[in-house]
Design a protein that fits this description.
This protein has about 230 residues and is α/β, with parallel strands linked by helices. It contains eight helices and eight strands, in the order E-H-E-H-E-H-E-H-E-E-H-E-H-E-H-H. It has helices spanning about 20-30, 50-60, 80-85, 100-110, 155-170, 185-195, 200-205, 210-225, and strands spanning about 5-10, 35-40, 65-70, 90-95, 115-120, 135-140, 175-180, 195-200. It is globular, with a radius of gyration of 16 Å. Bound molecules: D-xylitol-5-phosphate and zinc ion. Zinc ion binds near residues 38 and 179.
């Protein structure tokens, strides 16, 4: 992955699946940093999406790292299959794991970057105990399950608190990612609060020109002084 100050991860969930490879190529050419892949099981979230076979297919469509977001119950069952399918990073939900430290450390053991996702009503406080085991915190800025929802502005405070927590613990290498309702305005707000990875589905793929939409997102961050 290119280590920009801020990274943009288009979400495959909003791709036009009739031209998957073409759309992924467009965002790759436009400078996407990784592809975000939403996995939904119809239990943890009220929707179904894709599985390891899709990740395997995506790997053949792009050079970009695949960032797998598991919105599933019992995510431990799915770490090996997604690692084998080619995931570069795997993010599990705090709310779905009973022994989350063990889960996150296992993700690292199989050679993937480990992420922990927080639903909007989940506090960041217990992350204190997980800093050694995580590469990314994914702040859900919508209730997970669907693309195209509106950004929850009350999550900006959580991002600020997380940034302070990371700074206080000299854990600045941990990425703060935001997911849900990201567009040119909300990306800037989230960046100002301290986020440095932006997942975007609709803002990119609902556009008639996904590559251009990604560039506009990057430009908005640059204009606001939040990119190199
Ligand atoms: C929501 C997913 C998101 C989704 C974001 O449950 O985790 O990754 O694709 O889509 P937008 O950017 O359209 O809100
Ligand atoms: Zn997601």
């Amino acid at each position: 992955m290119i280590h920009r100050k801020h990274c943009i991860a288009p979400s495959v969930l909003s791709v036009d699946f009739t031209c998957l490879k073409q759309q992924i190529q467009q965002v790759e050419d436009a400078g996407a940093d990784c592809m975000h892949v939403d996995i939904m099981d119809g239990h943890f979230v009220p929707n179904l999406s894709m599985g390891p076979a899709m990740v395997k297919a995506l790997q053949r469509c792009t050079q970009l790292p695949l960032d797998v977001h598991l919105m599933v119950r019992e995510p431990d069952r799915w770490i090996d299959p997604f690692q084998q399918a080619g995931a570069h990073s795997i993010t599990v939900h705090m709310e779905a794991c009973t022994h989350i430290q063990r889960t996150l450390s296992y993700i690292g053991q199989v050679g993937c970057k480990a992420g922990v996702a927080l639903n909007p009503a989940t506090s960041e406080e217990s992350l204190h105990y997980l800093l050694a085991d995580i590469d990314t915190v994914l702040v859900m800025t919508v209730n997970p399950g669907f693309g195209g929802q509106s950004f929850l502005t009350n999550q900006l405070k959580k991002i600020e608190r997380l940034r302070a927590l990371l700074d206080h613990n000299q854990a600045q290498e941990v990425t703060i990612a935001v997911d849900g309702g990201i567009n040119t305005q909300t990306a800037v707000q989230a960046a100002q609060a301290g986020a440095n990875l932006f997942v975007a589905g609709h803002a990119i793929f609902a556009s008639s020109d996904p590559g251009q939409a990604l560039k506009q997102l990057r430009q908005a961050l640059e204009l606001a002084g939040h990119n190199r």
